[in-house]
Design a protein that fits this description.
alpha+beta; globular; 14 strands; 368 residues; Ribosomal Protein S8, Chain: A, domain 1; binds nicotinamide-adenine-dinucleotide; Hypothetical Oxidoreductase Yiak, Chain: A, domain 1; 3 domains; 4-stranded mixed beta sheet; 13 helices; 7-stranded mixed beta sheet
Length: 368
């Protein structure tokens, strides 16, 4: 385990994508997004993804240099195709399209299909909030079937995240962002690679028993065997019993079926994301300043609840990510040895030597 400065990790990751054939701009964008995700504390969706992204690029499941194409468009809505480009590029373009429309018209809806992994959905809610917009995002993951419905043991859905962002003038936005499964698949991957353990009831075995052992998802670990969530006999459970399961069901329909990206029930040659995003400009609906005042007042009321455990805090959505950002900007991003080894192997597959990678990273190493 080591702690790395965000800037050094960005440089290191960007170098791999450049070596893999991406432009300097796209490489920097992907690196920025992954490292920012590590800063928020969601290591499951940060640089641990580099080997998967590089493997997908080499397989031709994701394509460098691609942008969105418009399928349908009016002043307030658009259906866009991501052409299996990098999610960090595609989702940014789709989000900017929604921001532009909502800024002009007061609201907008953008349905995005066929994009590679768009990462942390909160990133897109934060981007909209930076433009003064409320946003709501429903996402599904066609081609990745991981989650059992409530009372089921067989996989029927993906981890289908939802994000909602509320801008607060002069302050950081309030962002709720989570997978509708007990844990995001990446968190099971982190546990499988020796990182933070899963809750004991995060997964379900084929016989209906709950477990926190990531082998239920990835199968028994063997040296040299890459983690593949298709190898395990079990499933991730939907969060919140029937409520989370129902919310995930709706993500399949709103993001997958509605956008044309498809649901977990249809066959997909590769894993993609689809995302339905709704953008609202507070000023188009009423007094934006009064809205912000009400948001501030409610947030203060909410967090003033006495904590159940003395000495802890009641946090708003986005609170833990903000704390993590402050801490990791100061102390560096912790990088597990197994995660770094995976990144090294991905770099080697692109012709970069371990020595070069160690050199790039060591420039930002805070501790070993
Ligand atoms: P999580 O379970 O850590 O929940 C995060 C949400 O809960 C955040 O809004 C956070 O602010 C809030 N939260 C956490 N602890 C809190 C506390 N003590 N008090 C108040 N609020 C609290 O997140 P997750 O489900 O593991 O998802 C992790 C990331 O994975 C998300 O960014 C999600 O978008 C991403 N994801 C992406 C995909 C994809 O296909 N692109 C799929 C699944 C998940």
């Amino acid at each position: 385990m080591r702690s790395i400065e965000a800037a050094a990790l960005r440089r290191t990751v960007a170098a791999i994508f450049e070596a893999a054939g991406c432009s300097a701009v796209e490489s920097a964008r992907v690196a920025e997004s992954l490292v920012e995700t590590n800063l928020t504390g969601h290591d499951s969706h940060g640089v641990i993804r580099v080997p998967r992204y590089i493997a997908a690029l080499k397989r031709g499941d994701v394509h460098a240099g691609r942008g969105i194409t418009i399928v349908t468009e009016t002043p307030v809505l658009a259906v866009v195709d991501g052409n299996n480009g990098f999610g960090q590029t595609i989702a940014q373009q789709a989000t900017d399209l929604g921001i532009g429309k909502a800024t002009t018209s007061g609201m907008a809806i953008v349905a995005l299909r066929h994009t590679a992994h768009v990462g942390r959905i909160g990133e897109w809610a934060e981007r909209a909030a930076a433009a003064g917009l409320i946003s709501i995002h429903f996402v599904n993951v066609p081609g990745s079937i991981l989650v059992a419905p409530f009372n089921g043991v067989e996989r029927r859905m993906s981890t289908n995240p939802i994000a909602i962002g509320i801008p607060v003038t002069g302050e950081l936005p309030i962002v709720l962002d989570f997978a509708t499964s007990t844990v995001a698949e990446g968190k099971a991957l982190v546990a499988y690679k020796g990182g933070a353990a899963l809750p004991p009831d995060a997964l379900v075995e084929p016989d209906g028993r709950t477990t926190g052992d990531p082998a239920a998802l990835y199968g028994t670990p063997h040296p040299g065997k890459p983690a593949d969530a298709r190898d395990g006999p079990g499933a991730i459970r939907a969060f919140g019993q029937h409520k989370g399961s129902g919310l995930s069901f709706m993500c399949e329909l709103l993001a997958g079926a509605f956008s044309g990206g498809g649901t977990a029930a249809s066959a997909h040659p590769s894993i993609t994301n689809a995302m339905l995003s709704i953008y609202l400009a507070p000023s188009a609906f009423g007094d934006a300043r009064a809205f912000t005042d009400e948001v501030r007042a409610f947030a203060a009321f909410f967090t003033s609840s006495r904590p159940a455990v003395p000495g802890t805090e009641v946090l708003m959505p986005g609170g833990p990510e903000q704390r993590s950002r402050e801490r990791r900007r100061r102390e560096g991003i912790p990088l597990e040895d197994a995660v770094w080894e995976g990144i090294l192997q991905a770099a080697e597959s692109c012709g970069l030597s371990r020595e070069h990678m160690e050199h790039l990273l060591s420039e930002g190493s805070l501790s070993r």
